[in-house]
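Pasting as-is:
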Amino acid sequence: MRSACDLIIFDYDGVVADSELLNNLVLSELLTECGLPTSLDDALSIYMGRRWLDCLPLIEDRLGGPCPGHIHGEWTRRCHARAASELRPVVGFVDFLTSRGERRCIASSSPVGWIEMGLERFDARASFGEAIFSAAVHVTRGKPHPDLFLHAAEAMGVDPARALVIEDTPTGVRAGVAAGMTVVGLCAGGHIREGHGQRLREAGAHHVVGDYRTIGRLLDVGPPP
């Protein structure tokens, strides 16, 4: 059966790795420690889906001054330390990956090292090869700008209109839509809260689904909208 796309672009946190709770809990703890009281829901609402360069001005605006210089490095250190025992793939990702024949890549706001660590842990590293694109190194503007997704499509030699993006945040959905791609909003991670699907729809997601099986069915029914 011919697929509805030539390339599947996976976001990473919340789409491949069920890591949004871990990342944002650690960030909320660090910001609270440095004098900016921040709950987990605050972090999910304000920072989720953004690269550090884009989180930093938001933090400094809320702090009313410079962000302590150790925060980014300590955030990375604590997340990696906890991931060694806590990190899991999003439910259904591994089965979906092994059952599909489309070309695939990752386009994420996270650093390449963080992505590679999780893929190794999930025995999925070989499935992506060098097709890992990070807004931290590959583009000047991060999501919600379309630059990272367009860079990924160009690098993979695929027309953006024939690419399908799987995203879990409004920020990422807006980036995929702006890139002219079909965007599926996935609500399968542990960070999903009531109303999240509606926020993805409002951001422009063409489809909002609760599991990977539904994405498989979408890919098998015909061309993207």
